[in-house]
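Dock iron/sulfur cluster; give full complex structure.
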Amino acid sequence: MLAEIRGLNEECGVFGIWGHEKAAELTYYGLHALQHRGQEGAGVVTSDGHELKLHKGQGLVNDVFKRFDFQKLSGHAAIGHVRYATQGERTIDNVQPLLFRSQTGGMALAHNGNIMNAYELRGELEAAGSILQTSSDTEVLAHLLKRNGKMDVISGLKDALSKLIGAYAFVLLMENSMHIALDPRGLRPLSIGRLGESYVVASETSAFDIIGAKFEREVLPGELITITDSGIESTRFAMQEKRALCAMEYVYFSRPDSNLNHVNVHASRKRMGIELAKEAPVEADVVTGVPDSSISAAIGYAEQSGIPYEIGLIKNRYIGRTFIQPSQELREQGVKMKLSPVRGIVEGKRVIMIDDSIVRGTTCRRIVRMLKEAGAKEVHVRIASPAITNPCYYGIDMSTKEELIAANYSLDEICELIGADSLAYLSSEGLETAIVSDDTIDQGVCMACMTGIYPVTEQGQLEVTYTKC
Ligand code: AMP
Ligand code: SF4
C-alpha cells in the first residue's frame, strides 16, 4: 500500500545565474549538464528586474526548449530545474521552477530534495487558509514565506526555512534578488561559481564547466545566500550540523566530472573499486563495468587486482538511464534495450562484473544472464557500495523496504537470484574511505540507506504522500 501511494522517486537538478544578459540561455546549457538528474521535465524562470517570466515543459531539456526563442525569457537573472516525476504526478503543474505571482511581487522556486514534514506543514497552511496549487513539497516554502507576514525577505526566508525538516537545496528568484539555501546537514550537493562578474549556482559543478564558469565554493549546510545587484551576502538560518552529503551522489547519481564537497566523483568511484578489490578479491580473466556509472570503479578494481580491465558491456547512448523509468515493467524493458555484451571479450572468460549498486536487483540479474548468454564461463559480481537495506527519506528513489532486494534476502540468496558465481559488496568503511579524502574539510556523508543510521529523522516519516524533488 505504502509503495502505491508514495510512488517511485527521484533526483532533481537546480541551476541559477545572476548578472548576465544571456541568463536564460546559459541556464539552458547548465541544465544540459544536469540532465542525468531528471529527464521528465525542465523549466527556466528569468527576471529582468520588473517581471518574472517562465518557460517549462515535460521531457528532456532539448524537447522543452526546441526552437525556443530565448528573447521571450529576457533578463539578467535566471533559475532552472530538471526533474523526474513520481508515478501519477507527471503533470505540468509539478514541473519546476514553480512560479507564484502576487501583488507584492513574484517568486520562483527550484528545489532538489525532500521536505519530510511537508505533509504536516501543508495541513497547517491549509488550516490557516492557504490554497496549495500543486502536490509538490516545494510549494510549502513559498506559502510559508508569504504567510509569515515579515516584510524583510531574508528574515522571512530564515523563518520559513527553519520550519523545514529534511533534505533540500533551494534556488529562489524574485524580481530583484536570488536566494540560495541548503539544509543544515547538506544532504544534497550545491555549489557557487563565477562567470566573469556573474554568480552561478548549480547542483553539480559539471554545470559550471559547460558554460565556462569557475567553481568558487560549496554552499554551506544551513546557509542562506542572497545575491542582488549590490553583491552577495551570506547568513545562516540554522546552525551547521555535521555534514551528511548523500553517498549515493558519489556512487551513482552525479556525473564523474563533477566535484562534490571538494571530492571528484570519478576519483572517488575509482577508490571504491580499489577498496572493493582489497576487500573481495577473486580469481578471474577480465574486469568489466556496467556503463556508465560503474566504469570508474571497474578501472579501480582492475588497477588494484592486476586483472585487465575490458569493455565487456556496451551502452546504447540513446536510451535514458534505467533509473528514470518510473515503473518496474518499463525499467525491465529499458535494461534490455540499453546494454549489449561484447561477446568477443567475455566468451570463455571468468568475468568480474562491477556494478555501482543493487537496488531492486533487476538490472544485475539481467546483466549476469546477458554475459552468460554471450559465453562468459563465470560471472563474479562485485558491488562498489554496501547493500541497500533501508528506504531513503531524502528525495531518492528508494521508497520502501519491500522493493529493496538486500532488505529481503541474504547475500547467498541474492547471489542465487541474480545467477552470479559469487557476489560481494563494498563495506560501509570502504565506501567512507573512498569518499572522505581530506581531514581538514567536513566531508561527512549520509549512508542511511546502507547502514540504517539516519542523519535527519522526523516522526511520521513513513507517511510521505506528496511529490518531492
Ligand atoms: P536495480 O537493482 O535493478 O533496481 O538497479 C540498480 C541500478 O540502477 C544500479 O546499478 C544503479 O546503476 C542504478 N540505481 C542506483 N540507485 C538507484 C535508485 N535509487 N533507483 C533506481 N536505480 C538506481
Ligand atoms: Fe543518499 Fe541513501 Fe542518504 Fe538517501 S539514505 S540521502 S540515497 S545515502
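Observed: Residues 3 and 388 are 17 Å apart (CA to CA).
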